[in-house]
From TrEMBL:
<dbReference type="InterPro" id="IPR014284">
    <property type="entry name" value="RNA_pol_sigma-70_dom"/>
</dbReference>
<keyword id="KW-0804">Transcription</keyword>
<dbReference type="InterPro" id="IPR013325">
    <property type="entry name" value="RNA_pol_sigma_r2"/>
</dbReference>
<comment type="similarity">
    <text>Belongs to the sigma-70 factor family. ECF subfamily.</text>
</comment>
<dbReference type="InterPro" id="IPR013324">
    <property type="entry name" value="RNA_pol_sigma_r3/r4-like"/>
</dbReference>
<keyword id="KW-0238">DNA-binding</keyword>
<dbReference type="InterPro" id="IPR013249">
    <property type="entry name" value="RNA_pol_sigma70_r4_t2"/>
</dbReference>
<protein>
    <submittedName>
        <fullName>RNA polymerase sigma-70 factor, ECF subfamily</fullName>
    </submittedName>
</protein>
<keyword id="KW-0805">Transcription regulation</keyword>
<feature type="domain" description="RNA polymerase sigma factor 70 region 4 type 2">
    <location>
        <begin position="126"/>
        <end position="177"/>
    </location>
</feature>
<dbReference type="InterPro" id="IPR039425">
    <property type="entry name" value="RNA_pol_sigma-70-like"/>
</dbReference>
<dbReference type="Pfam" id="PF04542">
    <property type="entry name" value="Sigma70_r2"/>
</dbReference>
<dbReference type="InterPro" id="IPR007627">
    <property type="entry name" value="RNA_pol_sigma70_r2"/>
</dbReference>
<keyword id="KW-0731">Sigma factor</keyword>
<dbReference type="Pfam" id="PF08281">
    <property type="entry name" value="Sigma70_r4_2"/>
</dbReference>
<dbReference type="GO" id="GO:0016987">
    <property type="term" value="F:sigma factor activity"/>
</dbReference>
<dbReference type="InterPro" id="IPR036388">
    <property type="entry name" value="WH-like_DNA-bd_sf"/>
</dbReference>
Amino acid sequence: MSTKKHILNPNNWVNLHADYLFNYTISRVNNHDLAKDLVQDTFFAGLKAMDNFQGKASERTWLIAILKRKIIDYYRKINSVKGKAEVKMNFYSDGEREGEWIEERVPNSWGNEIEKNIENSELSTALEKCIDSLPEKYAIVFKMKTIQQFETEEICKELDITASNLWVIIHRARTQLRKCMEDNWFNN
């Protein structure tokens, strides 16, 4: 019994896999430019890691595995302290201090803590009301995935839904939450 050994052909990656990888990515990050960047990063990482390809999986499966890691890395980065700090609050746009104000250089306090705590409390209350206004299934899935940080597989097993159904529910919940927050918090 012989198993077919797959080969890589990077010259055809864009034609054969770019659309599939983009569609896979856009359903997870919901940002066209970011999705394109992640697919491009995947192709680049694939080129760099070609020597590690053993031929056990198809080219597309191997690229999807790389892409999944890129997406996870992206979410880890934006949710880390460092990632949040890298959303540059760059008050220095020229001279010696240009681009310097990131990571640990971000000030810990911007001023009146009491005001901030009240505002955070009000924001938290508004967000809780918006989550409570979601359809029950949307609220449960949203809380499990976003707040309690359950893995997709755990949620799907627990609620007996497919992964694609989960992502549709998350997308719809986020859309409804955005509208609710715009109506009840940002327009006050």
